[in-house]
Amino acid sequence: MISTLHPKSLEQSPLPKASELRTLIDELIADQAQLQTPVARFAEIHDRQPDLADHYRNLIPLSQPAAGEQYAFEVSLDRCTGCKACVSACHNLNGLDEHEAWRDTGTLVGGKVAPGWQQTITSACHHCEDPGCLNGCPVGAYEKDPDNGIVRHLDDQCIGCSYCILKCPFDVPKYSKQRGIVRKCDMCHQRLAEGEAPACVQACPTEAIRIVKVPTQTPIAPPRTSPLPVFLTGAPDPSITRPTTRYIGRDVPLSAHAADRSTLTPQHAHWPLIFMLVLTQAGIGVLGSAAFQESPALMVTGAILFNLGMAAATLHLGQPLKAWRFFLGLRTSWLSREILAFSLFAPLPFALAALPFLPDFPFKNLITPCVSWITIPLGIGAIFTSVMIYHDTRRSLWRLPLTATRFYGTTLSFFFLALSLHFPWAKCLLVVTLCAKAGPEISMLLHRRPSDEWAPDLHSARLYRGPLKNLILIRAATTLFTLLALFVSPWLALPLLLISEIFERQLFFQAVQAPKMPGHFGSPLPH
Q1: Residue 345 shares a structural domain with residue 476
Q2: SS3 for 344-395, per residue?
Q3: How confident is the model at residue 470 (pLDDT cuts 50, 70, 90)?
Q4: Which of 81, 155, 285, 442 supports an S-S bond with 414, CB 3.0-4.6 Å?
């Protein structure tokens, strides 16, 4: 018997609509829209919570600093192994240029009395209470955050003068040739603002680095009866800028010192500054002689020398077109004051060089000597600002008496050389000036102080007798040839004296001991 089917069983199921049909291509496109790649999955997980957040939450403050407090690095010497994970993380997470580093490591070793002892040190910017970089910057390219105390560098304001590098006793700011500016650690302030730890804190496998809140507003000049707290044995004097970094853990022996203390490395020569200083001081000296003699040739020569020096100064700037903002640092920066002083002096060489060739006009005979005499006090003042620029860095070889002797000695040398064209007795004064100027250099060369064998002056003396000995010989030879040529013709002695002073200024820059945090073991040169 043929079975009878229910009518509904004969009905066909409805066909899917065209919009519901999914081809293989549709499925692939939908899958790509979800970005299920390893990078996408990592980004999704990271967006939920920063990497290692559970790990580093106890390594950063969970609240903003209160009044009278600021953020600071705290380094546990017991935990630091010198692995440089912090250095690598800082470099990569902050997108630094090749060979650029904002954090570094070094080594302290025991002294002669203590038993064998060694300690690795990690350091970055100390975000000082009285930062030298901020006080020295001529264009206000540094700011200290009033809320958290972080010292930040404003890249868009920097002119690349590198004066902050000289002002910082810890060698923190780093010059970038590629960008023409200086940059430094900013404690990853953008990460801290989001509750995330700085790169170095996240990367340290032993939790040796953390961010803490420390009290501020300590006295700038504490009473002499109360000793300053020890910042870190073997590190530069903390009283200069009052660093906030705290080194805790094992006690550091007072006899400990930097592992690279005996390494003799000449400092950067700063050739644009060498030519700027020598040529401007030579020009001022020659122009100053115009008050005692009328010589159009000398006036033109002095103007050329001075303006060549001013042109050389711009070559030292990474961003010279931004230098017009120098007035922003007049309150604290001697570099700003130097720019102002030389800018006020700059019209005088042009006036002195042009006046002899202008046709007679009323009061010309009165204006010429007035301009000549004005150059003397203004020139002395301008050179004084140059002296203070280097004295203010607190480097021993650049202290006020030595720097003033060098700079004013150069000016007087060219002053007496110019006078000797018409006054033969000035030759004797030039010889006396050159001998007096060489006195501190000879004293430094023979400097020996057994009671303090690692004094900064003795370090400079070792450089004189070691890596820079050939430069010393050339400097002495050119000075001798200058004196011989002087009694033939002052014009012949002029270029020789310039060469001699250029070598002297090279020694001024390269023989200085630059303070910095402890470095690693080097290859000490023979003393």
Answers
A1: yes
A2: HHCHHHHHHHHHHHCCCCCCHHHHHHHHHHHHHHHHHHHHHHHHHHHHCCCC
A3: very high
A4: 285
